[in-house]
Protein: ATP phosphoribosyltransferase
Organism: Streptomyces mimosae
Amino acid sequence: MLRIAVPNKGSLAEPAAAMLHEAGYRQRKDRKELVLIDVENQVEFFYLRPRDIAVYVGLGRLDLGITGRDLLLDSGAEAEEIMKLGFAASTLRYATTPGTVGDVREFNGLTVATSFAGVVSAHLAEHGVEASVVHLDGAVETAIQLGVAEVIADVVETGTTLRNAGLAIIGEPILESESVVIRRRGDTEQEAKVRQFLRRLQGVLVARRYVMMDYDIRTELVEKAVALTPGLESPTVSPLHDRGWAAVRSMVPVQDAQRVMDELYELGARAILTTGIHAARL
């Protein structure tokens, strides 16, 4: 069986489980369940702390894992990112008390508190900065107030938590992170099953990004209409019983669907419908 690590809690857990469910895999119903065997799909899921997943995969104990890019890089494990999943986006940034330091090059001799000591240490070294790095598990925004550090490096989504703590974001982002599928570096075992797993997840990503659009249009306007809905390769165009009309079907990006429907209507299209896509293979 393909052995896959899945986050058991945190911001990665529910979106990962939802994606796997949409991809046709069984998922646990009880959060206390640590291992789930999906016999039909020949997959064994292990529910682990997101921070530990890269370690297990890097050691070759598990074939694949779903985790954050930040956690992967911070672990130093012998694992690599093989697919982006598009959820749990975040940015690792420096922050400090306003009016103190404004750039990483000013950190020499200071102490930086973070939950991502590996990533931050590497970033400081890249910039030739000699600063101490203190590892903390969570709530690093209080480190400055308590005198543990002069600067923190923390995951930022909106920045509200840092502002509420009286801190200001400084410098360029350290790392842009999101959910990813990882694999042991250089591993080629279970290749066919790995490719099938990735195809399923890719199918979910496509299904989320597109809708299927159907509409009727007069035959003399078909070329103008399909210019608005080119699809992936080409739209499907079928003649209707009324010889002056054709039916068109095409995949359209979700974010463009309402605008395209308006433009098709103005062109003369009628019976314009959109339907969700539940799965796809491209």
About this structure: Residues 2-86+178-207 form a domain with the D-Maltodextrin-Binding Protein; domain 2 fold (CATH 3.40.190.10). The longest helix spans residues 191-209. The chain is about 30% helix and 35% strand. The chain has three domains: 2-86+178-207, 90-176, 210-276.
